Each structure stands twice: as structure tokens, then as C-alpha cells.
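Example (one chain per record):
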Amino acid sequence: QVQLMESGGGLVQAGGSLRLSCAASGSIFGIYDMGWYRQAPGKQRELVARITPGGSRNYADSVKGRFTISRDNAENTVYLQMNSLKLEDTAVYYCNAYKRIAGIDAPYWGQGTQVTVSS
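Predicted structure:
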């Protein structure tokens, strides 16, 4: 099994920055794509950013130019650098990873970390 442990959430003023980290542990062989999702009150969970082992990235339109996703493959860790934070960025942020073994894909999720942006 894979365990994902997020850290770095907290309270920050609008315009500020925050850096989230997510470390994968356990049976990590076969992990490929990793990413971040978020869920705000009253809304469904949405993709924020994702990254492949080779470094290809995708971002939600709402965070392009402000957020940067990166990863350390050797440490099986993914990061989300969040700059110019806005009130609407307030949400629980979830780390996500996919593992492929013998052609079978399985998703894994962290427990989430709260990010609150204040004015």
C-alpha cells in the first residue's frame, strides 16, 4: 500500500505564498503521475496541478502563472508552490498519486491539508 502525507497548509493573507509538500511511502514501486486537488466548501473536488515522472505539467486555468508543481522522483515527493494567493484559493488540498503494477492502475489519496487565505 501507498501512504501520502501532506504538509505545509495553514493560514495566509491574500497575496502571500505557501508551499505544500507530499511524501509517498510504503509500497512506492510503480508510482507515476502525482498531483494536487482541492475542494472548497460547497464545491466538488477539482484538479489543481499534476506532473508526470518526466516533468510534464498541467494546471487548472485558475492557478496558471501563480502555482508551480514540482517533484523529486528519488524521494517520491511532490510539491506545490502557491504564490499570489487569492481568497478563492481557500480549500482543503489533497495529494494524489497513481501506481501501475502489471498494467493495473490504482489511485492513492492523502488526507488533505487546509489552506485558508484571508483578506
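Caption: The chain has a mean pLDDT of 95.
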